[in-house]
Design a protein that fits this description.
mainly beta; eleven-stranded antiparallel β-sheet; 11 strands
Length: 188
């Protein structure tokens, strides 16, 4: 459990824009409640509340369930628009991902991100395969981004990553590229 709020003694040098939660002497109230049961189940709720009226500005809920061969992760996000910034629309979205350990060394994974706001629909979908060896790991993934004109460019990203244990990793992209995250090895 975590709960926090900051207080600024000198308001005249405040660099933060209105709506950021940091623009007044008393910042917004932020907090997190999280818990885990063994390595297999977890739940976390994070929030940001307006300091004057305790009105919700942002909240996120993350949950996961991982078993021997299959794992599922989900995240829900609601974030209000921030006055005085480029973030002029509230966001509400849910992302889900799943993985299946095919063998001890091979994993198949996929995921999707859905917008639940004013223009609902699928925004991102991905699929990938990972190999984890004793000295070498590699991963390849394809991700399709589906956006509207106001939210960015649509495109497909293909990622290939090689890891040499103790030396680091090399990453290469194909298509219209963006970075990916390195997959974690399967639980033993």
């Amino acid at each position: 459990l975590f709960l926090g709020q900051s207080y600024r003694f000198n308001q005249s040098t405040n660099p933060f824009p209105d709506g950021s939660g940091l623009s007044t002497q008393e910042t917004d109230v932020v907090g997190q409640i999280s818990g885990r049961y063994s390595k297999n189940y977890g739940l976390s709720y994070r929030f940001q509340l307006d300091s004057r009226h305790l009105e919700s500005r942002r909240h996120e809920l993350d949950a996961f369930a991982h078993w021997d061969r299959v794992g599922f992760d989900t995240r829900y996000l609601f974030a209000k628009a921030l006055e005085g910034t480029d973030i002029d629309e509230s966001r509400e979205q849910i992302g889900n991902s799943i993985f299946v350990n095919l063998t001890r060394n091979w994993r198949l994974r996929g995921g999707a991100l859905h917008d639940l706001g004013e223009d609902p629909g699928l925004r991102k979908a991905s699929v990938g395969v990972d190999y984890f060896g004793c000295c070498l790991s590699f991963s390849t993934a394809a991700q399709r981004t589906l956006t509207t004109d106001s939210s960015g460019d649509s495109g497909t990203d293909i990622t290939f990553r090689i890891g040499l244990k103790g030396l680091g990793e090399f990453q290469s992209y194909g298509g219209s590229f963006s970075g990916g995250t390195a997959p974690a090895p399967p639980a033993e």
